[in-house]
Amino acid sequence: MLTFDHVEFYYKKGQPVIDGVSFTIQAGEFVSIVGANGSGKSTVAKLIDGLLLPKKGTVKVHQLDTANSDELLKIHQQIGFVFQNPEDQFITTTVMDEVLFGLQNIQVPREEMRARVDAALHAVQMEEYLEAMPHQLSGGQKQRVAIAAILAMRPQMIIFDEATSMLDPQGRKQVLSIMHELHNQGMTIVHITHHMEEVLCAERILLIQEGRLQFDGDPLSFFETVAVADYQLQLPFAVRLHKTLQLEGPLAADWKEGIRSQWSIN
Ligand SMILES: Nc1ncnc2c1ncn2[C@@H]1O[C@H](COP(=O)(O)OP(=O)(O)OP(=O)(O)O)[C@@H](O)[C@H]1O
Ligand SMILES: [Mg+2]
């Protein structure tokens, strides 16, 4: 569904930021993109959505090419973005208006709007906050409203760019639960994060270093084969514990299940 084919990108000529990256993400996958600060994760996210265009190679969403400006609107409609700081995402004064705003932008018929708003807020358990002011909500609630605003537009894929990193543990857990739930419903999820506990939710990890793809595989083989400290990342607690205890044999699948269960949906 999403294809990067030998993508190269720079902000300043001669200083490559994305350097020959190729991968395909199928519809319905839950993929985490990880890497050190400045490794190029957000740039990849912006290339996915056509906010940035490759200098070489191609980015395609289904058969739509981001370099083709006629197709860009269709691509934007299929992909939603949730950013790090929920404050930056709010434009209006009530939760309802916030969700309506996006719908007006994509010209959803007026009679369809209210049902979409209600369904989106219900999906993130914020339906009781319809008249609330976004700025008075907790960080986790703000992110849930930001997600609702995107859900109302019915994208096929949502990219979360460090969307949990400013949240307290409860808010983080709620947002991760929503990601899980959306994934279960068939949505494609791309989760960019520094939190290694969180990548255990994903089916697949892409590791980026200095604009190159260093690893593409499942979390279990990631923690077995990659020296994460080399990429300024920390092992999840359960894996650290496992290694500290020097249990024999390869990492058992149960540590993964143990952590996954922490994020499981109630
Ligand atoms: N608008 C820009 N203009 C010039 N250089 C930029 C711009 N945005 C990012 N860069 C540079 O491109 C490189 C990759 O940045 P990017 O934001 O994609 O990394 P990241 O992996 O998302 O980092 P972080 O973990 O800090 O969010 C960095 O060296 C960064 O300084
Ligand atoms: Mg970033």
Structure in words:
This protein has 266 residues and is of the alpha/beta class. It has one domain: P-loop containing nucleotide triphosphate hydrolases (Rossmann fold, 3-Layer(aba) Sandwich), CATH 3.40.50. The chain contains ten helices and ten strands. The protein has helices at 41-48, 69-78, 95-105, 110-123, 139-151, 169-184, 196-199, 219-225, 237-244, 254-263, and strands at 2-12, 15-25, 30-34, 56-61, 64-65, 79-82, 157-161, 188-192, 204-209, 212-217. The strands form two sheets. The chain has a six-stranded mixed sheet with strand order 6-7-8-3-9-10, sandwiched between helices. Helix 6 links the parallel strand 7 and strand 8 (188-192). Helix 3 crosses helix 4 (110-123), helix 3 runs parallel beside helix 5 and helix 4 (110-123) crosses helix 5. The mean pLDDT is 90. The site of magnesium ion has 3 residues, from helix 1.
Query: How large a portion of the residues is in β-strands, by DSSP E?
Result: 15-25%
Q: What would you call the shape?
A: globular
Please state the second-level CATH architecture.
3-Layer(aba) Sandwich
How many domains in all?
1
What is the fold-level CATH name, i.e. the topology?
A: Rossmann fold
Q: How many strand units? A: 10
**Which strand order does the major sheet show?**
6-7-8-3-9-10
Q: What is the residue-averaged pLDDT?
A: 90
The CATH class assignment is Alpha Beta
Series of secondary-structure elements, N-terminal to C-terminal: EEEHEEHEHHHEHEHEEHHH
Instruction: State the end-to-end distance.
Output: 30 Å
What ligand molecules are bound, each kind once?
A: adenosine-5'-triphosphate, magnesium ion
Oligomer status: single chain
* Largest sheet composition: 6 strands, mixed
CATH homologous superfamily label: P-loop containing nucleotide triphosphate hydrolases
Radius of gyration from the alpha-carbon trace, in angstroms: 19 Å
Content-based structural category: alpha/beta
